[in-house]
Design a protein that fits this description.
Blueprint: E1 8-11, H1 17-24, H2 30-35, H3 55-68, E2 74-79, E3 82-91, H4 96-100, E4 113-120, H5 129-143, E5 148-151, H6 170-175, E6 179-185, E7 188-194
Parallel strand pairs: 4-5
Antiparallel strand pairs: 1-2, 2-3, 3-4, 5-7, 6-7
Length: 200
């Protein structure tokens, strides 16, 4: 009997927007509910929202606007029909803040796709879902024509107080076949995986 896949991984499209809201609104989602994976898409300081709108609400509106325009900013992982995991990825040029980052700035001029965030529902953590989402991210990027997938994980013995763990840890990428291509800070690395084009 074939092993049941951990997740059904689907691109975030307009018809799945409510599923992302459901996932982010659950326990343990306070950080993603503030950012809505918009932080790295912007460069420089974010102007204060107008009126009574909060930064979180503006981020949510801005991400939804991208989705409504047809941009796929990431993938949702479903288990038994319920959204339980998320990974944000896309062409590196979509993430303007990476260009200015001393840690994550371009290694070279090669076109790459970037993985910038993982989130797993609190009740499903510790089950290896990030690895499944990373595999899905590589498959999706390859299907869109990407030849390199890049990531910026944390590399240190313990969790400590490092808030960059939304990038994932180096061991996750090691197991997925990524290789280190730059280390500009002792605990942060740039890793890449070559994506073999799918044959049509």
């Amino acid at each position: 009997m074939a092993k049941k896949p951990l997740l059904d991984i689907q691109p975030l499209t307009r018809d799945r927007w409510q599923d992302l809201e459901t996932l982010f609104s659950g326990p343990g989602g306070s950080q993603v509910r503030g950012c809505w994976c918009m932080y790295y898409r912007r460069s420089g300081n974010t102007p204060k929202p107008e009126g009574s709108m909060t930064y979180a609400e503006r981020n949510q509106c801005d991400l939804k606007a991208l989705v409504d325009k047809g941009v796929v900013p990431g993938l949702i992982g479903y288990r038994d029909g319920e959204p339980v995991a998320w990974v944000s990825l896309g062409p590196r040029e979509d993430y303007h803040k990476l260009l200015r980052s001393p840690v994550m700035k371009p290694v070279d001029a090669k076109p790459v796709w970037s993985v910038v965030c993982f989130f797993t529902a609190k009740a499903a953590r510790g089950e290896g879902l990030s690895a499944a989402m990373l595999e899905g991210a590589a498959a999706y990027a390859r299907a869109q024509g990407a030849t390199l997938l890049e990531a910026y994980p944390v590399d240190k013995p313990g969790r400590g107080d490092d808030d960059n763990l939304w990038f994932g840890v180096k061991a996750l990428y090691d197991r997925a076949g990524f290789v280190e291509v730059a280390r500009r800070k002792p605990t942060r690395v740039v890793m890449r995986k070559a994506l073999t084009p799918t044959r049509g």
